[in-house]
Design a protein that fits this description.
The protein has 128 residues and is mostly beta strands. Helices cover 3% and strands 53% of the residues. Strands 2, 4, 5, 6, 9, 10, 11 and 12 form an eight-stranded mixed sheet that branches. It has a four-stranded antiparallel sheet with strand order 1-3-8-7, with no helix packed on it.
Length: 128
């Protein structure tokens, strides 16, 4: 069982920055990938960034590449999402996930429960 506790969400103006944090605890058996997803009402959850904790390999969606950066600090068991040049369309609930594999792009709702472990979500609001 993996527990994920997120923080760092908030409200920011377009062009601003935020850094999300997710503290990981518990046994991460078959949970080699840490990732960030986002979701707005009426839309599917979207994988935007992922990192393999053992290798450091990273993956990003086209919509955030060049603006967001995911990282993992092993000693603190914390995954971060640095978000720069934020746009209003980045407004969403952001979720941290621990899973066996990465997933980039929209995820069908029926896949959510079996994908891995999820955090509670933290709201990011970007105003124009």
């Amino acid at each position: 069982q993996v527990q994920l506790v997120e923080s760092g969400g908030g409200s920011v103006q377009a062009g601003g920055s935020l850094r999300l944090s997710c503290v990981v605890s518990g046994y991460t058996y078959r949970r080699n990938c840490m990732s960030w997803f986002r979701q707005t009402p009426g839309k599917e959850r979207e994988g935007v960034a992922a990192i393999y904790s053992s290798r450091g390999s990273t993956y990003y969606s086209d919509s955030v590449t060049g603006r967001f950066m995911i990282s993992y600090e092993n000693t603190k068991k914390t995954v971060y999402l640095q978000m720069n040049s934020l746009k209003p369309e980045d407004t969403a609930m952001y979720y941290c996930a621990a899973s066996p594999r990465h997933y980039i792009g929209t995820m069908p709702e029926e896949l959510l429960s079996d994908f891995g472990d999820w955090g509670q979500g933290t709201q990011v609001t970007v105003s124009s």
